[in-house]
# Entry
Amino acid sequence: MEEFIQNYLGISPVLQIKLLNTIILIGVLYTIIKLASKFFINKIEDVSNRYLWLKISRYITVFIAFIGLSKIWLGAFDSFGTYLGLLSAGLAIAFKDLLINLVGWLFILIRKPLRLGDRIQIGEVTGDVIDIRIFQFSVMEIGNWVDADQSTGRIIHIPNGFVFSKFQANYTEGFEYIWNEIPVLLTFESDWKKAKTILEEILNKNTIHFSEEAEKQIKRTARKFLIFYNKLSPIVYTTVKDSGVLLTMRFLCEVRKRRGVDMVIWEAVLNEFAKHDNIDFAYPTQRFYNNLAEGKQGTKPLK
# Structure
């Protein structure tokens, strides 16, 4: 057969062997990819995963074909070690994302930047961790279009490799309280001192028990992290803004109860302020100021 092909087609025996090996290689790879698609890839229900595995299988097939054809036609990779090394490198490239996610999973297990039940922010996503798997973890999303850190109802799956490329914020690790602030803007004519006293009483009534437990947690967490809080009790800060006097209530609250605490405090503020005619909320408005009639005696111009 070799002599017949050489005599009538002018193809040398060496070239015949290379062509035969090429046909066998392509045929074997084509058969494998078809069988893999039929019995494995096409049975994956998730469209995204099915597309991902189909893409990976094609990359691997092309890489193996390149190595095989190079060996057949160019005589490259005669060393089995070199061939195996390049094959391993090709597989590592093809499975790069999966390998990064696997390493990320090990990092999560060992370093524990997040645990089940933690409220975290990673990149632009904030939520409660509800599942940790080999290649990804899942969070129940909060915030987004919903106010005050309430759940949106969406489950977001995040690749484990994101722990290496995205910043992470853990709301609950070691210290299960966060600082919350509620600004209250009053008119300049209001009795801001009385209002401040009222706000301090409201905070002491509704938030004081958080600080005692938080202090214990800080002492435990300080063994691992450099955390210093000299003052944990609620406080009201006074600031002057363009539209009036701003009283800002700052206090500790539990991570998942921020909206509920805000509601309790605001209802108490509205009820108490309603009892006083000399305390009023400020809002965007326009007024004319007559210094002669309204100004202090020492600020009026000399006649």
User: Anything to note?
Assistant: The longest strand covers residues 244-254. Strands lie at 119-122, 125-132, 136-142, 151-159, 168-170, 177-186, 235-241, 244-254. The two ends are 126 Å apart (CA to CA). The CA atoms of residues 98 and 221 lie 34 Å apart.
